[in-house]
Amino acid sequence: MHLKKVKHIETKKGMSVNDLVKEMENSGVMGAGKIAHAVNIAEEAIKTENVKVWFGLAGAMVPGGMKQIIIDMLENGWIDLFVTTGANLTHDLVEALGYNHYQGKANVSDAELHKQGVDRMYDSYMPNEVYEGLEDFFDKNFEELQKKGKMNIKEFLWAVGELVPEGVPSILRTCAKKKIPIFCPAISDSGIGLMIWGHLAKGKKLEVDVFDDLKEILDLAWNDKNKYCVWYCGGGVPKNFIQQAMQFAPEAAEYGIQITMDRPEPGGSSGANLSEGISWGKMNEKGNFVDVISDTTIALPIIVAALKDRV
Amino acid sequence: MHLKKVKHIETKKGMSVNDLVKEMENSGVMGAGKIAHAVNIAEEAIKTENVKVWFGLAGAMVPGGMKQIIIDMLENGWIDLFVTTGANLTHDLVEALGYNHYQGKANVSDAELHKQGVDRMYDSYMPNEVYEGLEDFFDKNFEELQKKGKMNIKEFLWAVGELVPEGVPSILRTCAKKKIPIFCPAISDSGIGLMIWGHLAKGKKLEVDVFDDLKEILDLAWNDKNKYCVWYCGGGVPKNFIQQAMQFAPEAAEYGIQITMDRPEPGGSSGANLSEGISWGKMNEKGNFVDVISDTTIALPIIVAALKDRV
Amino acid sequence: MHLKKVKHIETKKGMSVNDLVKEMENSGVMGAGKIAHAVNIAEEAIKTENVKVWFGLAGAMVPGGMKQIIIDMLENGWIDLFVTTGANLTHDLVEALGYNHYQGKANVSDAELHKQGVDRMYDSYMPNEVYEGLEDFFDKNFEELQKKGKMNIKEFLWAVGELVPEGVPSILRTCAKKKIPIFCPAISDSGIGLMIWGHLAKGKKLEVDVFDDLKEILDLAWNDKNKYCVWYCGGGVPKNFIQQAMQFAPEAAEYGIQITMDRPEPGGSSGANLSEGISWGKMNEKGNFVDVISDTTIALPIIVAALKDRV
Amino acid sequence: MHLKKVKHIETKKGMSVNDLVKEMENSGVMGAGKIAHAVNIAEEAIKTENVKVWFGLAGAMVPGGMKQIIIDMLENGWIDLFVTTGANLTHDLVEALGYNHYQGKANVSDAELHKQGVDRMYDSYMPNEVYEGLEDFFDKNFEELQKKGKMNIKEFLWAVGELVPEGVPSILRTCAKKKIPIFCPAISDSGIGLMIWGHLAKGKKLEVDVFDDLKEILDLAWNDKNKYCVWYCGGGVPKNFIQQAMQFAPEAAEYGIQITMDRPEPGGSSGANLSEGISWGKMNEKGNFVDVISDTTIALPIIVAALKDRV
After folding, report:
1. C-beta atoms of D261 and C263 within 8 A
2. Is C282 part of the annotated catalytic residue set?
3. How many CB atoms lie within 10 A of CB A75?
């Protein structure tokens, strides 16, 4: 066998995250090895000019403290296309309006929290009053949004992002400002969707087309000048929507990182190993992929901190 | 303590599924106890006249052999409202067009499968040629769909379901025939979405509104004559879309069943215990809920087989 | 491809567990397919004369209501060699002394339970007073055990099992009565171990050798007249101790069933797929194995109920 | 609510692991928050004079690259008592004899590996020839071990550790050298056990008592001058053996860290949240505990690297 030896990880006082990741690379197996592999893939994808990074983010990642990391990645040009859930965008907007999420507990009385007006996402809390703020925001800005006329969801989200004032850290605002394509196919399944419904219920109009974003993302994928790196934190629609587009990329995805705690065996897309995508023509059979089995809030900060030393 | 004793499960030659579930109820703990609890909740919800069962289905459940069970539940009037992923509806339509899924393996060469034109979902296979069948179907029927004029997604899905010939077992057809509201917020994230995109790319029109389904489901929830039982197999958008609507049900959901392998600790909605919904006002704090930690393809057939003896 | 089609599972009023398992076999994929595969493997192993079933049981399976199923399997001659944890044997003995486990809840105040003298295993409870009963039992019987002289752990467990009166359902008693080899390498890590320690602390003697059981199990494995079916519910020492012995079986294990919720990716033995054992020479590369990803309290009763129709 | 806000994690070029952990502490929720909590608990436990850290290590942690981290912790006096599996000690000894583990792959032909004489632990490989080295080692040293006369397992392991030459990095050697109590109740379930069996099979004698270690660990726990911090990487016997001893600590364990990927719901000890131990009197109800849901090879290096800045 011409294999690399497992070199045991050594830790040192004051060591940098990047140095720890290099130790993990030399160890090379199990979870640690996957973290290091992910950093190497991301480094190459970001540094290689014609590689586009398409990033799918699912799970309660704004309540989970990941917002600034995502904004940094968008600002640094590390993400070329972004797909997420309506929930994350709602939480992002809620914070842009001045609200916060709070450090809570998981093993609590949800009836008591309900009485106190607190919404729980595992051990992260959000005051339910944010919905009033969201209502005010959309009351104030609904006409502005209507003026845009018929939109697809991406255009709608950019329009919302433009309403976030400069200087406020926000995923929506950053995507709008930098014109990074942002997709959220199930936007109606979110607080933002609810707010729009509130206005429609009063007879107002807002035309947002279901299928037009699909046209946009597929046009972007169908481009033989680019190579693609897919990067998923969690599964769900964000992953699947990008995977679907990769079927139209001439060489499919040649780089891939997946961070999830979902299991592959029950057969759902969220837990499926990236290699499964090879059978579909979504991933290139010679591509460089890694499945990191980890809570995103642990793995993503390590990966991004290490990348900051390298890129 | 006035607690029930754990009575050890006894199995017998020829025993019925329902009798095994009753043994599980007397045992009452861990996974077995949850299965029995789920059957009890479903039995009460289905038998109680004004309780509406809202069912969310995620994961590769048609490739996983669950189609007939879902159709039975819909036909029997056990499901009053149905939300699923675009993938499941695409697989349902694919089978309606005469194709099949196949028993495969998970530990295989995906490159080899790709060469053979086989798409893999863990250990279930689908020939990639189904896409030609789908294309033919939508080519043939696109004008018919256009004639419906502006639709929401539910109406679009009913229209597709009506195109499935009588006698063909199909979730889409059953929902259309029985006018069971069927929602799929992220329909663009699916093979069906791709087919529509194919026609839009050629300049054709099909107007499907993003937010209008939200209005429909919320109007249905906002009904003080009904009580609600939420039933989730998997998480993702199907769960979240129903949970969101439950915030508008006067008493929130008073019954709840969740079957999933996702974990709660990473904080995403898919793995969140149902009780978390109490804090949000999605679940009633006095409700009767159970979280079954199981592969749906194991738990759902047991639950439904037992229910057939009881309802 | 010459593959079998996924035939969708059909449920029927009054259907037997075995008929449901046959439906799962025709579906053939994901969790359901694995359950059916496990029943087929077990059926063949039990029916084939020279195949010995070596069964490893870990996890809180007596508190979880599995005791009678295990006793049935032992009584029926379906298990030829049994390895488990000290905890399961302690819980078995506790029930043999007249105590019970109780249906509890997982989301409770453990401080309150402690005050009430209740020990919790997820949602199964045990009154802490069982330890007094255990003490009485070993006080009364210690001399009897000493009389046996130097023992290995198997002999010690048979000796304890002989002290359980006839007619009392007990795993220990059944193994002793039927002279089924029962191993528990980490017996000191259990309530039974604590009781022995209590007597040693008072200066009494009981000689139980660490390594002698290893000799026994390896001698049993090293037998070219037998073939082996390994069957694991949970991992830990019970699995590993049998796997280790299989390295000495002339053809390694040719049948294998594993039921666990542990994941393979972190690298531990408990979650490792059975196929990994092929590399070690523990499993035969042409063997018939299945990894069932399920809570044992769900999967095992189904499998055993179906087997009762077949064997 | 007087709760701390979720402050979004910020990463920086060149940032230290400890600084990243501090960011995780300010975020405070989900997986990241648990990592930071674990570092705080460990820091306090290590710095507080009369707090004893009892460390349980399960899983393939030497093949997984964790050996040097464990040795460092032992050398630094961060671990006062160590319990592990026979497998980890065997892998430790194997490396002390000059062999290595190798970076492999999980999705491979185990039949092919077997042919090449390679044993697989997920994606870490070990050449099977190590067993010859182990045999030589015990052949050479068996008399030396016999000379010790009757031993308990701890004494046996110290005796083995003393045979490892100075300067060779080894967990066994470090425990022996520093007289750190090391327990391995199921030592017979390991390669080391097999080697001893090999000599017993030839009629040699080695007396190692099963229950005597229990006496040692309980005497250590039963000490009202000490407080205890339990620290588990993985579950199994190492966790349970320490937990059992904590029932005898006057105030039970007042600090606790658990790193595991096992789930609590199936009811086994390995996945049980630490708080469950409160009901048993193993954990102090006012104690400071955290359950980190993570692959140990990811979480442990981060925690230890951060601790090196603090202790």
Report:
1. yes
2. yes
3. 15
Contact between C113 and D278 using a beta-carbon 8 Å cutoff: yes
Domain C17-310 has CATH 3.40.910.10: yes
3-state secondary structure of C287: strand
Which residue among the candidates D52, D154, D227, D282 is catalytic per the annotation? D282
Query: What pLDDT does C111 receive?
Result: 98
Question: A206 or D126: whose pLDDT is higher?
Answer: D126
DSSP string, B54-80: EEEE-SSTTTTT-HHHHHHHHHTT--S
Distance in Å from the first CA to the final CA of chain A: 34
| Mean local confidence (pLDDT), D267-282 | 98
Question: Which amino acid appears at position D277 of this protein?
Answer: G
pLDDT in tens, D286-300: 999 999 999 999 999
Boundaries of every domain in chain D? 17-310
Helices (H), chain C: 17-27, 30-47, 67-75, 86-96, 110-115, 130-147, 153-162, 171-178, 191-201, 212-221, 236-246, 276-280, 296-310
Q: Which amino acid is at D182?
A: I
Residue A260 near residue A290 (C-beta atoms within 8 A): no
Cβ contacts of C57 on chain B, cutoff 8 Å:
none
pLDDT band for position B113 (cuts 50, 70, 90): very high
Mean pLDDT of B238-259: 98
Q: CA D150: distance to chain centroid? A: 26
- DSSP state string for C150-196: SEEHHHHHHHHHHTSPTTS--HHHHHHHHT--EE-TTTTSSHHHHHH
> What subunits touch chain B, counting only 3 or more CB pairs under 8 A?
A, C, D
What pLDDT is stored for residue B196 in this prediction? 94
Specify which residues B52 forms β-bridges with.
Answer: B228
Superfamily of domain B50-296: Deoxyhypusine synthase (3.40.910.10)
The minimum CA-CA distance between D7 and chain C, rounded to whole Å, is 28
Of the residues C7, C204, C282, C286, which is catalytic? C282
pLDDT value of residue B171: 98
SS3 C266: coil
CA distance, residue C104 to nearest chain A CA (Å): 16
Residue of B nearest to A116 (CA): B279
pLDDT of residue C24: 98
Residue D129: Cβ within 10 Å count: 12
Catalytic residues of B: 282
> Using 50, 70 and 90 to split pLDDT, how confident is the model at D62?
very high
Mutate to test the interface with C, among D189, D220, D259 (most CBs of C within 10 A): D189
Min Cα separation A125/chain D (Å): 9
pTM, two decimals, is: 0.98
pLDDT digits (tens, 9 = 90+) for B69-95: 999 999 999 999 999 999 999 999 999
Q: What percent of chain A has pLDDT over 70?
A: 100
Nearest by CB to A31, which of C107, C266, C293? C266
Query: What digits encode the pLDDT tens for the residues D159-184?
Result: 999 999 999 999 999 999 999 999 99
Q: Return the number of CB contacts < 8 Å for A and D.
A: 231
Q: Residue B39 is inside which H or E element, if any?
A: helix B30-47
Element housing B257 (H / E)? strand B253-260
Pick the residue of A11, A23, A276 with the most D CBs within 10 A to test the interface with D by mutation.
Answer: A11
Q: What is the pLDDT of residues C182-193, one digit of tens each?
A: 999 999 999 999
Question: How confident is the prediction for chain D on average, in pLDDT?
Answer: 97
